[in-house]
Task: structure prediction
Amino acid sequence: MPPQPPADLSTITLGELLRTNYALIVRCAACGHTGPADVLTAYRRHGAAARVTALAERLRCTRCDGRGGVVVSITPPAGL
Ligand SMILES: [Zn+2]
Result:
């Protein structure tokens, strides 16, 4: 059975995201930089029960080094 797209972004955990292999797209609140989050690293640091919305708030932006991102979308892996 193919993985189902997540229904509600605010309730999705890192464990669920990794199980579906979807990419988590996060936008920096400070500079607007948008890109995929490093879900595997976040999973190792915060655990499977961490919610993706909480993770986005803790992420450090790769462009401006600021914190406080928001989840933009969850997208299927390339090639599917
Ligand atoms: Zn930024």
Q: What stands out?
A: The chain has one domain: 9-75. The radius of gyration is 12 Å. The first strand starts at residue 23 and ends at 28. The first helix runs from residue 14 to 20.
